[in-house]
Amino acid sequence: MNVILITACPSGMATTYLAARRLQSAAERLDWHVTVEAHGEATPVTPVDDATLEAAELVVVAAERIPEAARFAGKRVFQAPIDQALPDPEAFLARAEREARPFEPEEATAETSASGAEGQRIVAVTACPTGVAHTFMAAEALAEAGRSLGHAIRVETQGSVGAQDALTEEEIAAADVVILACDIEVDPTRFAGKRTYRTSTGNALKKPRPTIEAALAEAEVESEGTSGGGEAKKSIKEKGVYKHLLTGVSFMLPMVVAGGLLIALSFVFGIEAFKEEGTLPAALMQIGGDTAFALMIPVLAGYIAYSIADRPGIAPGMIGGMLASSIGAGFIGGILAGFLAGYTAKAVTRYIKLPASVESLKPILIIPLLASLVTGLVMIYVVGEPVASILAALTAFLENMGSANAVLLGTLLGAMMCFDLGGPVNKAAYTFGVGLLASESYAPMAAIMAAGMVPAIGMGIASFVAGGKFSEPEREAGKASFVLGLCFISEGAIPFAAKDPLRVIPVSMVGGALTGALTMLFGAKLMAPHGGIFVLLIPNAITPVLPYLLAIVAGSLVTGLGYAMLKRGDKAMSVATEG
């Protein structure tokens, strides 16, 4: 008997392929002629061809819904949730043969209408704090998942180089739903009146199908001052403080990168060459250290406030950030100033009512005046000195800590960078390191970037060393992961972590902790917070170079070889084979 087997689990991950493999084996034991269509995220979906569809006598669907249901009109179809197929695949197939019935076109239409999931027009925006990895990987995942579900989808990325593939007004107007998969604040005004669903780039990347399905089911029109409905949107807003912080960090990063590399370039002429006035090293230090680094804290505070209160928050936020910098409160003071300015500006906007004749003065006069006054006075008289003392103590500790404490700190930061591969723990460690650059503490950033390279490089090593344990798509993903790791994009390891988290994440943390510990032990310093191995092209951006590379190699080998040994060597399943 000619049979088509279709599997799909809600996450599109391991269960999809496990069920397909078990059902395929059970069907072949029954001497059925089998074609498998597995709807998962690890490999592109390969739909059955027209000839196979025409010859099929039975269609077995282990999924919550029938993908592209209309194509099976007139065929004997059996559909049940995938969890019913796993315990006893033989019984599941026997039930399918017994209970299958002809699938009528009107049933397909009814299913489409009931699910509300076919033929929708979706527009989406992705944006992560660094604007490098998660932004584009989440966009690709959403686009592929949307197309596989039969939707027309367009995704705009707001990355480090600005908006790409920008959505047009016509596309937004025609959209049935808007997905904002953003970890930082983006302007939602152009989506006014549209059903909108908010989530994180991590969710969109790891669970693109459930994200789209949830958006279609839960998206709501957002009114001014609300976050919209849906559980996912509620959870994002509950993490508002984290989101506002990441928005500030994302705008600060270009200042940190430019300033750090310019300072490193000044060191090419000698570590103290910049002290000679009128020389090129002095000019480079003036641009990088005296200007770019001086702007870091005000920009951080200004855009934290912008994330909270929109444009009215920028001026008081930057003023508070400049005060934090001038009184020695550093990045900690800048963060506090940003939140204080943002919430003060928001309160003034919301609670101070003026006559209509002077309401237009509020954004250009009333809000900047009151918010800047409150923020400035609090920073000077309340927050400034205590925070400055805390930052001075932290800086002194980092500068004077012994090798044992340095190794412990490096171990902790390295493990954090590898725990969730771009998630909240990873970002917390990264933000800590970036903030310390403003205080001229360069060692933690060195440990953080080196450890962050380890998971992706390690997965590339594992897929090469133990190629027989990986499917062809996984080996290709391993090559890409290796290159991404060299660029300090740890998200390259996400496909492997999603499929096998209980092995990938611990072995990555061990390798990252080793790398972080070694970089601190070697006294490595890093002037720029991004760029990966390619920062080595800038003289003195990383010092010392060879021990730093040794730390990365050591951690990557531990992760790669460790996972090569731990990974199960099950034979990869072909997602569209006939037997």
UniProtKB/TrEMBL annotation:
<dbReference type="InterPro" id="IPR003352">
    <property type="entry name" value="PTS_EIIC"/>
</dbReference>
<feature type="transmembrane region" description="Helical">
    <location>
        <begin position="545"/>
        <end position="566"/>
    </location>
</feature>
<dbReference type="InterPro" id="IPR003353">
    <property type="entry name" value="PTS_IIB_fruc"/>
</dbReference>
<keyword id="KW-0472">Membrane</keyword>
<dbReference type="GO" id="GO:0022877">
    <property type="term" value="F:protein-N(PI)-phosphohistidine-fructose phosphotransferase system transporter activity"/>
</dbReference>
<keyword id="KW-0813">Transport</keyword>
<feature type="transmembrane region" description="Helical">
    <location>
        <begin position="291"/>
        <end position="309"/>
    </location>
</feature>
<feature type="domain" description="PTS EIIB type-2">
    <location>
        <begin position="122"/>
        <end position="217"/>
    </location>
</feature>
<dbReference type="GO" id="GO:0090563">
    <property type="term" value="F:protein-phosphocysteine-sugar phosphotransferase activity"/>
</dbReference>
<keyword id="KW-0808">Transferase</keyword>
<dbReference type="GO" id="GO:0005351">
    <property type="term" value="F:carbohydrate:proton symporter activity"/>
</dbReference>
<keyword id="KW-0418">Kinase</keyword>
<keyword id="KW-0598">Phosphotransferase system</keyword>
<dbReference type="Pfam" id="PF02378">
    <property type="entry name" value="PTS_EIIC"/>
</dbReference>
<dbReference type="GO" id="GO:0005886">
    <property type="term" value="C:plasma membrane"/>
</dbReference>
<protein>
    <recommendedName>
        <fullName>protein-N(pi)-phosphohistidine--D-fructose phosphotransferase</fullName>
        <ecNumber>2.7.1.202</ecNumber>
    </recommendedName>
</protein>
<dbReference type="InterPro" id="IPR036095">
    <property type="entry name" value="PTS_EIIB-like_sf"/>
</dbReference>
<feature type="region of interest" description="Disordered">
    <location>
        <begin position="98"/>
        <end position="118"/>
    </location>
</feature>
<keyword id="KW-0812">Transmembrane</keyword>
<keyword id="KW-1133">Transmembrane helix</keyword>
<dbReference type="InterPro" id="IPR013011">
    <property type="entry name" value="PTS_EIIB_2"/>
</dbReference>
<dbReference type="Pfam" id="PF25554">
    <property type="entry name" value="PTS_EIIB_BC_N"/>
</dbReference>
<dbReference type="InterPro" id="IPR013014">
    <property type="entry name" value="PTS_EIIC_2"/>
</dbReference>
<feature type="transmembrane region" description="Helical">
    <location>
        <begin position="245"/>
        <end position="271"/>
    </location>
</feature>
<feature type="domain" description="PTS EIIB type-2">
    <location>
        <begin position="1"/>
        <end position="98"/>
    </location>
</feature>
<feature type="transmembrane region" description="Helical">
    <location>
        <begin position="363"/>
        <end position="383"/>
    </location>
</feature>
<dbReference type="InterPro" id="IPR006327">
    <property type="entry name" value="PTS_IIC_fruc"/>
</dbReference>
<keyword id="KW-0762">Sugar transport</keyword>
<feature type="domain" description="PTS EIIC type-2">
    <location>
        <begin position="241"/>
        <end position="576"/>
    </location>
</feature>
<dbReference type="InterPro" id="IPR003501">
    <property type="entry name" value="PTS_EIIB_2/3"/>
</dbReference>
<keyword id="KW-0597">Phosphoprotein</keyword>
<dbReference type="Pfam" id="PF02302">
    <property type="entry name" value="PTS_IIB"/>
</dbReference>
<feature type="transmembrane region" description="Helical">
    <location>
        <begin position="442"/>
        <end position="468"/>
    </location>
</feature>
<feature type="transmembrane region" description="Helical">
    <location>
        <begin position="504"/>
        <end position="524"/>
    </location>
</feature>
<feature type="transmembrane region" description="Helical">
    <location>
        <begin position="404"/>
        <end position="422"/>
    </location>
</feature>
<dbReference type="GO" id="GO:0009401">
    <property type="term" value="P:phosphoenolpyruvate-dependent sugar phosphotransferase system"/>
</dbReference>
<dbReference type="InterPro" id="IPR050864">
    <property type="entry name" value="Bacterial_PTS_Sugar_Transport"/>
</dbReference>
<keyword id="KW-1003">Cell membrane</keyword>
<feature type="transmembrane region" description="Helical">
    <location>
        <begin position="321"/>
        <end position="343"/>
    </location>
</feature>
